[in-house]
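User: Sequence in, structure out. Go.
Assistant: Echoing your sequence, followed by the structure tokens.
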Amino acid sequence: MPEEVPAADRARSVEGDTQPLGGMPKARIRVVTDSAADLDRAVAAEHGVSVVHLDVRLGAFGPDITSTWSPEEFWERSAHIAELPETSAPSPGAFKEAFLALADEGAEGIVCITLSSKLSATYQAAVVGAESVTDGIRVRVVDSQFATMAEGLTVLDAVATAEAGGDFEAVAAAAVASSGRMQLFGTLDSLDNLRKGGRLGSAQALLGGLLDIKPVLEIRDGVLELESRPRTRSRSFERLASKVREAEDLERLAVVHAAASDVDLFVELLAASFPRDRISVGWLGPVIGTHVGRGTIAVAAQRRVR
């Protein structure tokens, strides 16, 4: 993954709920994902990945507008709007539209990778969309069991297999195998958004009056769970860095952040145990960012193939 791409390079127009990205098809088997993957638009375009947008509403701005914003613009605007953003899953029709568009481009099969089915109805919408096009093209929907760049790295592994000439089953298998080697953890600056959204899973009961902590969270088996409860930002950074050190035989690290001013400091901590030039840094987009809030920093760590 490259470093952050300037907002101007990410600009694009959107029609409807779906944003097919890229020019000429890169492979016979094509890959679709959703906007929770936080896949850089330039990278998606380069590899012909189609991105179906979850709906994001911010104040008076509906999804037809917010879907055109870069992550930087979303965080800039949300700083001046009192209401919390809201998100909802795409419709099955949005996925159907994406699948049929790729079929029209000559795709022989499609692997669709979504964020965790335990965090959103997006996976089910993709399944229904796939069932509606069985007469036109073969579609396999894969639950990444993750979100943000853990989902995004899974997408890129599937794309790499497709571009290497892999068939339908090989591309789907690559996505499943990639997800199985993934970890995703992060720290929040505040629990307010997560608490209001009710997204903390079984760890919700542990919170009580601990809303002033700087929690470290982890997605386990597709569910967001509380990993530890540091009381300061610096200690939460230290805990995340220790999680990276404890991980065995890492191949890739991707850091995403929600307008966190101290992200560079955190990346330097990671660089003590993983080469700095191999750590990609990008933005946490509005889909996941809506629920975890400004200042969140997350790390997707992937083990090597054994």
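User: And one key feature?
Assistant: Residues 1-25 have pLDDT under 50 and may be disordered.
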